[in-house]
Design brief:
There is one protein chain. The chain has 126 residues and is of the alpha/beta class. The longest helix has 15 residues. It contains 4 helices and 6 strands. 31% of the residues lie in helices and 18% in strands.
Length: 126
Amino acid sequence: MYLLFLRKFASFDSVDPFAPDVIRASMGSLFNQKFVRTSFSALRHWVQNHRCPVIGASPDGMSEFHQFNYPNSTLLFLGEERQGLTPEQRDLCQHLVRIPMVGAVNSLNLAVAGSLLMYEVYRSRT
């Protein structure tokens, strides 16, 4: 599994997977991951060349995340925590899935949403 970080801002230091607090929070598991830092245009080009299905997460997704049949090679795409996926990012996705919410809650922290989706892809293959 690869963890992908898009370069959105000129100061790319907003996410540093090797910051001491991040390493401590991951309990060292990040050393078993592969990280890719790229731009959106480079990602789009890669997806087109490799025909990798992109599954986006959005509150208005057509399928609930635990009922979706994830392809063997799946790229999960989560947008910015407050704004979600941009229209351009949504266009890259072949499917949008949603995480059902209960009560007045309308969204989850990005890390929690990403964890749920990654676990569901894993679970669906075992």
